[in-house]
Amino acid sequence: MLKKKAENVVFKCAVHLLEDLNVVEYEYLETHKGNYIIDQLCHQLKIREKYYFGMRYVDSGTQRQWLDLEKLITKQCKDVNPLIFSFRVKYYPADPFHLSTNARILLFKQLKRDLNHGRLYCSNDEFITLGALIVQEELGDYDGKLHSANYVSTFRVSIRQTDAIEKKIMNKYKGRKPGQEPSAVIDEFLEIARNLEAYGIEPHYVKDHHGNQLYIGVNYMGISAFISGKRSQLYRWNEIRKLNFEGRMFIVHSVYTNASRELKKYTVGFKCISSATCRYLWKYAVEHMLFFTLSDCRSNCKKYGGGIFFGGTKFKYTGRTEREILSDDISTSNLIFETNEDMKKANSVPTTPSSPKEDLCHISKVYLFAIFYVLPTKAL
Asked: Strands 303-305 and 263-272, how do they pair?
């Protein structure tokens, strides 16, 4: 006798928006993929550039993860209860001004979070200017009758906030040009933020081959190494040939041009806190490399191996690349709230770096030699 098929089980999750106090709840079925939730959320927020954003969660092993939009939610988030997502910017664009108004506002909120948590590192002068812009966007023009006390103390601009800095922010805000629209203030903030070295950087704490503590980050430019908040090395995407990991070691294979204009190979390794964080960093870096360099991910290889031995971890890259998002021939079926005005692209969008075609599809190649920390062909 055939058993009656069980009815679909309804699962629930909570999504924290960029303001942590704002939480929305969604229901989903076992057959639903990550796209299901983010599509609903982007529809609600009227965001058409969904591929710049992502849903972050903490898995059962306490490792941060990004929800894969093309995989089943139940398989990715197994044994995670309660299931709580954080809606965040995943790919920070080189030029924020091609984004629609709603997406640009969300990027502004994300950057305020980054500044508040110390991820958006900047000088004191830059911090004071950014702080004054945050205050102006929130309060409007300075008014001596309304803004007489230490009102800046009610703003959590950053963990670096002190009484002395708050006074400087108030003086800066007082001298701001009146009559600016909030959108103009936000754009001024974005213009400063996008030129900072730490723009779009999620810090991953590692050790170099000398055992020195530092952190590395990934953004539209490439992979950067930071010491005390200052960038010490930048591996640009067009210089990187392969990315691998083995155990706790994250390995970057790149090239550089020496004084004789000869192309030299350079391999560097960074020791992560754990193998789980290393695997997360590797996938995060490969996803960024492909998002910002490929013209069309469908015309390139899609599976990328991580480990040097035994094939390592593999994942399938899905979703659109930035060039596809910016192209004029984007299918209307993949956009939300498209209008003729929305489809107009800014002429100021810079060309993103591209990786050599002959090397990009070899990210998944398995190496037959062991690498420990770094091959000393170039000083870090």
From this structure: unpaired
Instruction: Check whether residue 235 and residue 365 sit in a common domain.
Output: yes
pTM of the prediction?
0.82
Number of Cβ within 10 Å of residue 310's Cβ equals 8
Residues 74, 34 share a domain: yes
Q: What is the pLDDT of residues 58-107, one digit of tens each?
A: 999 999 999 999 999 999 999 999 999 999 999 999 999 999 999 999 99
* DSSP per position, 315-380: EE--S--HHHHHSTT--GGG-SS--TTTT---TTPPPPP---HHHHTTTTPPPSS---SEE-SS--
Query: What is the phi/psi pair of residue 260, to 5°?
Result: -90, 10
Assess whether 220 and 340 both reside in one domain.
Answer: yes
pLDDT at 343: 35
- Is residue 307 very low, low, confident or very high in pLDDT (cuts 50, 70, 90)? low
If you write DSSP's letter for every residue of 87-105 in order, what string do you get? Answer: EEE-S--S-GGGS-HHHHH
Phi and psi torsions of 67, nearest 5°? -65, 125
Q: Where are the beta strands (DSSP E) in 178-239?
A: 204-207, 213-218, 222-227, 230-236
Over residues 334-361, the mean pLDDT reads 38
Amino acid at 84: I
315 CA to centre of own chain: 18
Report the candidate in 315, 338, 334 with the shortest Cα–Cα distance to residue 68: 315
Domain boundary among 165, 193, 221: 193
Closest CA to 179 of 128, 142, 147, 146: 142
Domain shared by 39 and 133, yes or no: no
pLDDT per residue over 229-259, tens digit each? 899 999 999 999 999 999 999 999 999 888 8
191-213 mean pLDDT: 96
Query: Which amino acid belongs to residue 286?
Result: V
Range 263-266, long-range pairs (CB < 8 A, 24+ positions) = 264/377, 264/378, 265/241, 265/377, 266/375, 266/377, 266/378
Kindly state whether residue 6 falls inside one of the protein's structural domains.
no
Range of the domain at 18: 11-89
Count up the domains in the chain and report the number.
3
Residues 208 and 291 in one domain: yes
Q: Are residues 288 and 249 in the same domain?
A: yes
- The pLDDT of 26-39, averaged and rounded, is 96
Nearest to 121 by CA among 282, 211, 232: 232
